[in-house]
């Protein structure tokens, strides 16, 4: 592969993926609409960290503006990370924005790719939130989709839109269901970012619910690797869980964080917001077998790196 287009290249995962592609010698067209879900300055810092690489061209635009279509010229793989993320803010009036950024924008991208003489491979970012609260041991990709947030509903609908384009036109789309990604540049609304920031300030850590909810936390470079592998090896229509291979309770994560910071965190338990899944636990065997995906970074090491990044460059 020689040329890629990354949507959402200034975001958390998108900026890491862009850096990785550039390091691998790929020419990258990056687009980002600076969707107003968090501090634009944080996204500008992400872009600054990508740097002025000669093989990187950045365009600031929303996918809905459609002025990016010609930039698909010569692109082998599209990595589609642009979205309005976050489960807890997707209620009320915000839902229309979630529909626009997560469903409608994706469909515009697929249409544009379809018009190409040779459509690019398209790796689409989906989410564990399509499953809702998980039951039993590990959840594989055939589990029923029962989202518990409007955000999860938009990600499920986005997957369905992708699937009909695969079935009708054979468009080479693959979908990755990420499980709560963390690491340097994590979005400021996400748990680890907020917890570290609160601990650094000496404030109580605000935990929603009783802290017994669990997640299969995934380090960001592992999510990036899944994108690279999917771009190379996935077949049209395939869907993969991308997890960290370890289910951990939130309260236990706080203990690890406390050890890393050499403090005993004060915790303020507050009522859990609607839309929060109680448990996620990924069966990643399909990604292992089909793509060769294997998470490399342990939770302890990933947290250490996120903390180092936040200390080095304080952010909101
Ligand atoms: C995350 C992302 O925000 C979604 O965009 C993504 O789609 C999803 O992962 C996914 O895996 O599909 P979430 O699991 O809620 O969603 O990630 P965090 O925001 O890091 O929250 C993890 C847990 O910490 C949740 O139970 C949440 O309620 C809790 N939390 C979060 C707190 O207790 N306090 C906070 O201040 C923030």
TrEMBL record:
Residues covered by the NAD-dependent epimerase/dehydratase domain: 4-243
InterPro entries documented for this protein: Epimerase_deHydtase (IPR001509), NAD(P)-bd_dom_sf (IPR036291)
Coiled-coil residues: none
SUPFAM superfamilies xref list: NAD(P)-binding Rossmann-fold domains
Superkingdom in the source lineage: Bacteria
PANTHER family: DTDP-D-GLUCOSE 4,6-DEHYDRATASE-RELATED (PTHR43000)
The family this protein is said to belong to: Belongs to the NAD(P)-dependent epimerase/dehydratase family.
UniProt-recorded name of the protein: NAD-dependent epimerase/dehydratase family protein
Gene it is expressed from: ytcB
